[in-house]
Amino acid sequence: MEVESVKVHPIDENLDGDICDIKTPISDGTTIIGIIYGHGVMLACDTRTSSGTLVSNKCSRKINRINENIYVCRSGTSAHSQKVIEIIKHYCLSMKSENRKKGRFHEDEVIQDDVADEDIDIDKINNASNFNNNNGNNLVTKHKYFYEDKFMDCNPLVENVAHITKKLIYANNNFLSCGLIFGGYDKQKKQQLYSVNLNGSIIEKYDYAVSGSGSIYIQSYLQDKYKKYMTKKECFDLILNCVKYAMYNDNSSGGIVRIINITKLFVEEYTVTNTQLYFDY
């Protein structure tokens, strides 16, 4: 009797690599968005990070402070984007020192220490006021931070920070995988929005910018609902609904919603814990 040879495969070859590979990088498969309105610029994002098919964090922070007047939304590989942000923060500190040497500051004024290198959260700025607004269905928590106006002239320009980041990502795009949306306010160009893509290209946006895996689900909604010179409330409702719709349709987006409002005088952070959508059929 002739017996056919049977090829035996190792057990690990039959397993799904995405599940068993512990070296899968942490990814911010995400929805990040920025919108310019009448008196400022708003940034928003979800909070889910994943490693393959595993949700590694439900409440991560994808909006980070670069300077008191500049914030950034991160997407892509989490480790890459965090390292880029850390480098850009050092550039900002160098720019502050250079601006002070050029006489844009009085010598007796001292620049306060910036956030620690390991702290990628929003730091406490003078005159911070915190309060909760739990009436209604959204369960919104709000924190408000005021600028110190005498230091505004020393702050780096939003445009400069975005272009430095663009050069950094372009020079290392062979192994970097991250996309960023910068939003900020300075005295030269007022509220601004910049999108730095994975390949190192930069686009200045005059209306809105959206990126991440959930962005494809809200592009048409944004084009239909966006209008120039919106009020703060109109912009807040629009950006919140955009992230909610993306979380509803995109498996890589989820958690809660974080929103940053950057204006001429202050920065506000909103945390929306109720992200359910209600449909009338």
TrEMBL record:
Give the record's keywords alphabetically.
Cytoplasm, Hydrolase, Protease, Proteasome
A Pfam family recorded for this sequence? Proteasome
EC number from the UniProt entry: 3.4.25.1
Give the domain of life. Eukaryota
Gene3D superfamilies referenced in this protein's UniProt entry, alphabetically: Glutamine Phosphoribosylpyrophosphate, subunit 1, domain 1
State the signal peptide span. none
Q: Quick check: keyword Metal-binding in the entry? A: no
Write the protein's name: Proteasome subunit beta type-6, putative
What organism does this protein naturally occur in? Plasmodium ovale (malaria parasite P. ovale)
